[in-house]
Amino acid sequence: MAKGKFKGKPTGQRTFSSKEELEAGTSADRPKTFSKKKQEVFNRREESIEEESDEEVEKTKHKGTAGLIDIDNPNLVKPKSIKAKDVDVDRTADLSRREREELEKQRARAHYMRLQEEGKTEQARKDLDRLTLIRRQREEAAKKREEEKAAKEERKAEARK
């Protein structure tokens, strides 16, 4: 067995196995409990697992009579939750209460946003009124600035003469 970090004797040297020895299995650092026969069995198991995984894709084991009879039990596999955007709009009978409520919320929000864009809601009217008020104030301020600018230029022109 190869000596690693801890030495048996203070005068002993550390020995390391080469890569070739490790691959060939002839290195001295292989544990005594791990025999070549066990290695072969381990390799066979890996190969058989790979073969079985291919077969499992094709065949699945069924418990009891499940392999003989096709059963559609809705309680066996149930999706955890379905997002309202992924749900069919026409299929409302199969939806749970929460899913129906979420779908109704989305429809109501879309309807409200449509009305908002058209300016038919109270909030949209308030916003439009505020917007017109601000536009008027800005126009008045722009006129004042132009008048002040014109008055300033006239003063300069008079001062030059």
From TrEMBL:
Signal peptide: none annotated. Residues 73-150 form the Casein kinase substrate phosphoprotein PP28 domain. Residues 1-102, 139-161 are annotated as: Disordered. GO terms for cellular component: cytosol. Pfam families: PP28. Residues 48-57 have a biased composition (Acidic residues). InterPro entries: Casein_kinase_sb_PP28, HAP28. It comes from the Eukaryota. Residues 29-47, 83-102 have a biased composition (Basic and acidic residues). This is Casein kinase substrate phosphoprotein PP28 domain-containing protein. It comes from Hordeum vulgare subsp. vulgare.
